[in-house]
Amino acid sequence: MTEATESGAARPAPLAVEIRGLDVTRGGAPALQDVSLSIARGSITGLLGPSGCGKTTLMRCVVGTQIVESGTVTVLGRPAGSTPLRSRVGYVTQEPSVYLDISIRDNVRYFASLYGRGNDAVAETIEAVGLSTHAHHAAGDLSGGQLSRVSLACALVGRPEVLVLDEPTVGLDPVLRAELWEHFASLAASGTTLLVSSHVMDEADHCESLLLLRKGRLLAHVPPDELRRRTGKSNLEEAFLVLIRDQQVGVQP
């Protein structure tokens, strides 16, 4: 991604995330191996790969909660996890992170207070995740999909500059999934950078670029259409399988 200078020449867009030579070991085994990548600000990047490939580990590195073996992770120009980033980076985990004994509104209001946001932001965020009619319900009375949306609202209400989402659409119906992706697109258009993991390959077309991981290694970092062009496959799941087979026979994607 590039942006124009005053002279009309193109220059690289400012980076939200820059990773160089990242290695992570978990449980005595390599979880990430020599991962290097850059993510431009105001973009949606999809993180795809089979279970156990290192997606969650990579996201934990970006938010600064993962011990790294070697390499560097820079977010918004600062080392990942540094104190100034705490109000600038949001993270939604796979498991809902909410208080079950209080209402949706009170959960979101609590996180809003941490970021200095008012009640208007609380109402807008609850509406954005489709829970306005349930705002007074206790979180403990909600379904799994609804709890995931409450977690998302708690992260969104702080209006982070970088938003890391670990499979945010799991358990949601197709209509709500589509609505959430529309909301993600509007966030990116307003300048928010999103890193979204998914196991649903058809969601990849909502992303500007894709990070394809397998066994802790980055197979490719490409836009969806470029992935199709490289592999000759229109179906993204089939294209991903081509990359895997190429790696197995020693062919670089």
TrEMBL record:
<protein>
    <submittedName>
        <fullName>ABC transporter ATP-binding protein</fullName>
    </submittedName>
</protein>
<keyword id="KW-0547">Nucleotide-binding</keyword>
<dbReference type="InterPro" id="IPR027417">
    <property type="entry name" value="P-loop_NTPase"/>
</dbReference>
<dbReference type="InterPro" id="IPR003593">
    <property type="entry name" value="AAA+_ATPase"/>
</dbReference>
<dbReference type="InterPro" id="IPR017871">
    <property type="entry name" value="ABC_transporter-like_CS"/>
</dbReference>
<keyword id="KW-0067">ATP-binding</keyword>
<dbReference type="Pfam" id="PF00005">
    <property type="entry name" value="ABC_tran"/>
</dbReference>
<dbReference type="GO" id="GO:0005524">
    <property type="term" value="F:ATP binding"/>
</dbReference>
<dbReference type="InterPro" id="IPR003439">
    <property type="entry name" value="ABC_transporter-like_ATP-bd"/>
</dbReference>
<feature type="domain" description="ABC transporter">
    <location>
        <begin position="17"/>
        <end position="240"/>
    </location>
</feature>
